[in-house]
Amino acid sequence: MSRNGILIIEDDKDIRELMVYNLTKDGFAVTGVESGEDGLDAVSRDLPSLVLLDLMLPGIDGFEVCRQLKAGEGSRHVPIVIVSAKGEETDVVAGLELGADDYITKPFSPRVLTARVRAVLRRRARQTPKEEDVLTILDLEIHPGRREVVYDGKRIELTNTEFKVLHLLARRPGWVFTRYQIVDRVHGEHYPVTERSVDVQIVGLRKKLGKAGVFVETVRGVGYRFRDDD
To answer: What pTM was computed for the model?
Structure first.
């Protein structure tokens, strides 16, 4: 497996072979393994560009594989897309909070799978702006140093929390943040704010942004993201 290859960790042979076939046809170098242990070994030998990970695996399950990869010094930056029949809201949120970049539920369309893989790789290829960088997205400008937001030439007054939420999302367009992740990154661990209070903050933020409020998208049952127009 080359550094630009994709590693599939999937115990169902038919599904694994289907994924290998379609991704190979679309020009990717692909390797498939059937267990979490084999997947971890493969990553330790040769870092892939992306991992497609099933959750219900024999032995070490997918959640633990994701946890170990994100804790590893060399593997923590490898993007992970979970592909699982476990499609409940709690499963999706749990996977994303462990650090997965995307979550696809089975059954899936091979074309959708390829498109989502390409989208994750594009996002990872971009350099995430530094905290102090001014962000310009179409007619929206976000100035971290001045805590200032300007849309279509007009300044928008935001609270400190609203600004932090907007800046967090805008620095990674297309990246889904769960409500817990937003609370944790904006306020810090153990801050006494409920996840549902994030919904209230988002409503207020969108209202103040006016037409630019469409940039902040809801991912039903999971959280929020900044619109990716790429």
So the answer is: 0.68
